[in-house]
Amino acid sequence: MSFTIPKDATARLNRSELAVPGSNLKFLDRALQSPADIVFLDLEDAVAPDDKDNARKNIIQSLQDERWGKRTVSLRINGLDTHYMYRDVIDVIEQAGEHLDLIMIPKVGTAADVYALDMLVTQVEDAVGLKKRIGFEMIIETALGMANIDEIAAASPRNESLHFGVADYAASTKARTTAIGGPNPAYHVLTDADEAGNRDIHWGDMWHYAIARMVVAARANGLRAIDGPFGDFSDDAGYVAQANRAAVLGCEGKWAIHPSQIGLANETFTPSKAEVDKAKRILKAMKEATDAGMGAVALDGRLIDIASIKQAEVMVSASRQIAAADKRLKALADAGKKATGKKVTAKKKPAGKKKK
User: pLDDT for 58-76, tens place per residue?
Assistant: First the structure.
């Protein structure tokens, strides 16, 4: 192990992250009952330019609803290259900062982007006397961001996670696709011809490098790695396939752009009972080996050693965290359904004076 050990960011369960447009009052209210680990309230891509101000007001009013309870909430602000961003930060933190856990930064291109937002958020927090510090989620969705990903990941102690924004990344790199995530039939290789001249087609994962690169940058800086959206929310099998790919590469969660994807993400990124049981057996076997003065031992015909212990400990710890979080989220969802308090509603404009 290196003498330099990455310090892990704030521990949060992040299997599923539900996107909720701030301009949709119905969706904001439904999000209160969501089983998603994290809900991000969106002021960027899902909100039309003419609706930015109203969406911001909706989100502030929603965050002030006591039914959010201890649910983890993130705010996706507008890009640093827009004039909406500073008002997103100032208004939401000043009026509802105590109910906000994270800020999601879109299209991060350089470490300076993170630094600039850190300075602004710090000033607003200090001005209103906010005791807790809001964390940062950063979306890697441009060629510039991927080129500077290591510096971005290390840019602020507020940093908690890196997310892969596949659609904008495809546009930025001028990839020949219009889909939001998923495979592409043109990205394949052909086997050599057999004796009859037949050749098999093997599809590849065109996003493999981007996801793997993001995972390395995230883990090297103690951050969570989260896969982004899968656009076809009618294709459950396709979503699960992409989520499994991300999990194998080291991601611990994926976005849900539709409520139907939340359960798929939660299930995919939750270790199975068989996996947890095996991890517990590994820990037990290694303890027995250690007590006997052995550095390694065989289990089910496979060698296990110190590295196996670390993997098993991560899995067992995750399963406990998930069980506790699922219980808490169910309680929050039930409370949201039973609550008789006010729902999120649009604020009425003051009536104008009648002309005489």
Answer: 999 999 987 887 889 999 9
H helix intervals, 229-305: 236-249, 260-268, 273-291
User: Does 299 score more than 80 pLDDT?
Assistant: no
Q: How far apart are CA 169 and CA 128, in angstroms?
A: 36
Domain limits, the chain: 16-269, 271-340
- CATH superfamily entry for domain 16-269: Phosphoenolpyruvate-binding domains (3.20.20.60)
How far apart (Å, rounded) are the C-alpha atoms in residues 209 and 68? 37
Q: From the CB of residue 87, how many other CB atoms can be counted at a distance below 10 Å?
A: 16
- List pLDDT tens digits, range 237-292: 999 999 999 999 999 999 999 999 999 999 999 988 888 888 888 888 878 777 77
Contact (CB, 8 A) for 22 and 59: yes
State how far the Cα of 110 lies from the Cα of 100, in Å rounded to an integer: 24
90 HSE (CA, 13 A, CB side): 7
Nearest CA-CA partner of 69 in 332, 326, 334? 332
Q: Is 136 helix (H, G, I), strand (E, B) or coil?
A: strand
Give the separation between CA 309 and CA 196, rounded to whole angstroms. Answer: 50
What are the Cα distances from residue 118, in Å, to 12, 39, 87, 105?
Answer: 20, 21, 15, 11
Q: Which of 157, 155, 53, 178 is nearest to 108 (CA)?
A: 155
